[in-house]
Task: structure prediction
Amino acid sequence: MSTATLTAIRPCSRWDPRMWETGNEGNADAIEMCDWCPFKDNCRTENPYPRGVIVAGVAHDDYGNLVTGKARKPEPEPVSARPVSLAEPYRDEILRRHRDGQTWGQIAVVIGLPLSTVRSYGRRLLAQAVAA
Ligand code: SF4
Result:
């Protein structure tokens, strides 16, 4: 596989790169995607002095210091009465992949939707299944 292809399939190349800027509201999603990124180990060595960004799931401030806790945001509560989600057409695939043990982040990459969309929709489906 070419270097260009490998770069293109990195989550931080496929999604909005601002999510990897420390302090961005997408930091929690970025960290979750880094957690299962197959390039995580290489990423650490490729970026020895990160500043103001998340690298390999670790947030750094503008001086390169580690940021602990601040980059993660609380998980939203599932809301049952939201409008129809962009993930609706993928309902069966999302449920099947979740049952197979895939994370919301992995599923989001496979179906090509933002992690937050897939995660909130998936959690709503699970909450509805429990309530039924
Ligand atoms: S581990 Fe590195 S290459 Fe992978 S998504 Fe995170 S920052 Fe990008």
Notes: Residues 10-12, 20, 33-34, 37, 39-40, 43, 55-56 surround iron/sulfur cluster (CB under 6 Å).
